[in-house]
Amino acid sequence: MLLNKKPGVDSSRDTSSCCGKLTGTGRELRYFMRSIVPIRRHSACSPRGYSLLELVAALALVAGTLVPALELMRHGLQQSIETDRRLQMASYAVSQMEKQLAATAATWAVGSYTGDYAADNNADIRYAAVCSDDPLNGGVTGLLMDLRVTTYYDANGDDALTSDEPRCDFRTQLGRFSTYEALNP
């Protein structure tokens, strides 16, 4: 389609066929495009953006849904950390119990032992192990050893177990029989 007419002279143009090549001056092309796609001018009373009230309402809706969701995620993360810590304490308690069983079976030594797991990068998890054949502790002198292992999370860092710190306790007994003595001279 050729555009070589002056703007405003003839408005009966054939705009149904847009397959042809548009030629003409820039002013004619602008006029042609204006006649196809009318440009809407904003009046003084039409809104150009969002009002402050709309923004505050949108912010309140977002905050009303986002804050509980973040609170739920925070609570879930805290529970996950606490569960992981308790599983670590149980694993360390079993490990320490096995060490004490092996040492007591070999030497039949009574005593109490304390320490932490700083070598495993867990200095805040500590243990206390007690091996006793005293009847007051549940043992039989020379025949039955009572072994107790407690692992705890030392939250306040005072190297002592307090009542509000999470803990994991294991207890077992080890018998001293002549068969064991014959196998381990």
From TrEMBL:
This is Prepilin-type N-terminal cleavage/methylation domain-containing protein. It comes from Botrimarina hoheduenensis. The lineage of its organism: Bacteria, Pseudomonadati, Planctomycetota, Planctomycetia, Pirellulales.
